[in-house]
Fold:
Amino acid sequence: MASIFTKIIHGEISCHKVAETDDYLAFLDINPNAKGHTLCIPKKEIDKIFDLDEVAFHGLMEFSRQVAIALEKAVPCERVGMTVIGLEVPHAHVHLIPLQTMEDARFISKKSMSSEEFEATAKTISSFL
Ligand code: AMP
Structure:
């Protein structure tokens, strides 16, 4: 069965898109640790990030780097953190999280945001790409 992220890629589930190339997609995490929490994924569905082939892995890292640079300009923060977990969604992804404190990296306290806030945040990040 297709992963929820593959359904997003195919437009079957909506997302707040931040960036897209032929091979990668970035969109806001629906349950963010902090405003601007973004997921970067390869369009090719592979469960574990370290099972990506070398080209796809490095491509995802470069795509994530570009999104992180835009994210840091768009959302005031100490720095953008990068995390890989993958326990919930079996489709390789990188979390980019604007960090103010270590709490923002802990996936415990979550920020609630309206759909308008999600939309505006995605647009602002995109504008810095
Ligand atoms: P993990 O697989 O543990 O790295 O976590 C998966 C992440 O995907 C979580 O932070 C979820 O909030 C996020 N997530 C799950 N479904 C969606 C969705 N439909 N749109 C955006 N983010 C999602």
The pocket of adenosine monophosphate is lined by residues 4, 13, 15, 29-31, 39, 85-89 (CB under 6 Å). The two ends are 33 Å apart (CA to CA). The domain at 4-127 is CATH 3.30.428.10 (HIT family, subunit A). The mean pLDDT is 98.
